[in-house]
Amino acid sequence: MTDRPFLSVAVPVYNESGNVEPLLQRLKAVLSEAGVDHEVIIVDDGSDDGTWTSISSAITRYPFVRAYRLSRNFGHQNALFAALAAAKGDVVVSMDGDLQHSPEVIVRLLAKWREGFEIVNTRRLSGRVTGFFKRSSSALFYRVFSALAEVDVSEGSSDFRLLDRKVLDALLKLRDGDLFLRGSVHWLGFKTTTVEFQVAERHSGQSKYNLRKMLRFASGAVVSFSTKPLRIGIWVGLLTSLIAFLEIFYILVQVYRGRTVPGWASTVGITSLLFGILFVLVGIIGVYVARIHTALQRRPYFIVAESIWNTDGDSPAP
Predict the structure, then answer these.
(1) Which domain holds residue 193?
(2) Which of 110, 155, 207, 261 is deepest in the core (most CB within 10 A)?
(3) pTM
């Protein structure tokens, strides 16, 4: 492997001990046939199932691999950012390590790059392997995100993509509080195209994205790329204020007419409504304040605890 390989493949993994060897076998076959100088960057995101042991064992058989183990589980987006930061190639492909992102698609991504595209995204076709709930919730997320955010991310987007070196250098300069790399890549605005691919079955193990993680991922993405919730909050506040003034006007009219105001039901009802709306708005503001707090702390996205490689010369810094 030369000092500056043509192609880097960045792969974050978490509890994927059974997938390391099959992944590297497939990558070796595909990249060798493509005939390009290459490296594979694997970042272990604090796995606790023997993934790092599998990687350490594989290094001796795959000299094109460099691996980094993070000090704890920082999350998929942070681990992916770590892998991208360590990549040295002129072209960088990011993908997951469970083999649902087929290595054979890399050849198609490279073909689009050679046509002049600087970002080659992928769109998942996952009807055969993804459950109804996950497909539906994913589609809903991208519709809501695109409606609220400053960037339009299409349904089926994934972190399986190709980036030109200058795109990656620009991406690494960003310092978002909540990493959402799909949105960040779209925001950069380079020449882009999309390749569709059929999602494969996981080789082994189960998905690590449960409902809680998906909700956290979705909320962080929206907050990172949109201030619309705050602007919506202003209009909701104005609307509820109008309702409150109408209620006051109604009460004054009833008093003027000498009618007894029922009082309890209407007072309790409107008070509960207004306080409910108020608490929602305070919660929205709190999310943005928390994000500002996190950004001001300037903590790193990841911490490398250990690295291994099997190349001549000095180790490249992550």
Answers:
(1) 7-209+300-309
(2) 110
(3) 0.72
